[in-house]
Amino acid sequence: MKMKLNKLFLSASIVLLAALGLASCDKRENNIAYPPGVAANVATVAESNGLTIFANALRRAGMDSTFSYLGQYTIFAPTDSAFAAAGITASAVSSLPVETLRTLLRNHILSGRTTLMSFLPGPNAVYTNLNRDTLFVTGVGTPPTAFYINGRKVTQTDISANNGVIHKIAGVLAPAGGNFTTTVALMPNLSLFAAAVQRAGLTNSFNNVGNRWTVFAPSNAAFQAAGYADVNAINAADPTALSALLRYHVVPATSLTQSGRIAFSSDLTARYANTTLNTVQGTAITVGAGGTTVKGTNSAAASNITTSDILYRSGVLHVIDRVLMP
């Protein structure tokens, strides 16, 4: 299952990144002088700090030259193990299209030099990366003792280079793809969920960019365990009942307290563990003690979150292993 998820992440990322088509490097500069006593640029510093895959990706994408300009950048660099967990190995970097790599890397970079404690603590404070997409920064604690970027934990901070600062993170920040339908279509493990959304007549609601939703999507195995053996069974279900069931798996922005109003895995753990959240259906689900499970009112057992923080244009999706029963 882990291997399948890794391959899925990589293939989905390639499709989503290519679709964005942002091939050129951002030439915006802040004209901030290099800090004294730091001689090496970002690519060199990244490699010397164990960020081999990230450094190789910069060079293959031709973006190491971007950092030769007089200017400052803030880089959220996934560790080698984070890249590997996402299916992006050294060999994958060598074979990915250059434009795909550029878009992936730009998703991890902000213009300007920002040390970690200079970030707004949020939760989910909004920053714009070089793709002109949104990154959500959350500090946990007062003052913050941990930071998360789109739910990915910052593991090492403030690594200085002569043209920026690097923060190591424990996950890859894949760009948000298209709408909900497009994103779910790239995930074979959610084909029954996708069919259920269509059968229930909720496609437009899920795709509506005005709906800032946190979605707990049951896997195919979860639907099968709940009595929906295949797409034919989904299509035979009463659409009204199916609509109510699906809406019970969606938490709207109005049920959340933080800015950005979507709940990443880090939010579930730090902010909503052991709490109830009202759903679009109208009744509540309960987030477990560690923030890694959710439970419906009439569910026999809690549902485990098996894959988290899948961004789409107006929300975030978490895959769960049991259907929530209202």
Short description:
With 326 residues, this protein is α+β, with helices and mostly antiparallel strands. 32% of the residues lie in helices and 23% in strands. InterPro entries: Adhesion/Biosynth-related, FAS1_dom_sf, FAS1_domain.
What does this protein look like?
With 326 residues, the chain is α+β, with helices and mostly antiparallel strands. The chain folds into two domains: 128 residues, FAS1 domain; 141 residues, FAS1 domain. The strands form two sheets. It has a seven-stranded mixed beta sheet with strand order 2-1-7-6-5-4-3. A seven-stranded mixed beta sheet has the order 9-8-14-13-12-11-10. Helix 3 packs across helix 6. The chain is globular and about 60 Å long. The N terminus is likely disordered.
Q: What order do the helices and strands follow?
A: HHHEHHHEEEEEEHHHEHHHEHEEEEE
CATH superfamily of the largest domain: FAS1 domain
Radius of gyration of CA atoms, rounded to a whole number:
20 Å
* CATH fold-level label of the largest domain: FAS1 domain
> If strands are numbered along the chain, what order do they take across the biggest sheet?
2-1-7-6-5-4-3
Structural class: alpha+beta
- Gross morphology is globular
Largest sheet: 7 strands, mixed
What is the percent of helical residues? 25-40%
- Mean of pLDDT: 86
* Name of the level-1 CATH class of the largest domain: Mainly Beta
State the distance separating the first and last CA atoms.
28 Å
* Beta-strand segment tally: 14
Pfam families: Fasciclin
Domain FAS1: 38-173, 177-324
Signal peptide: 1-18
Protein name: Fasciclin domain-containing protein
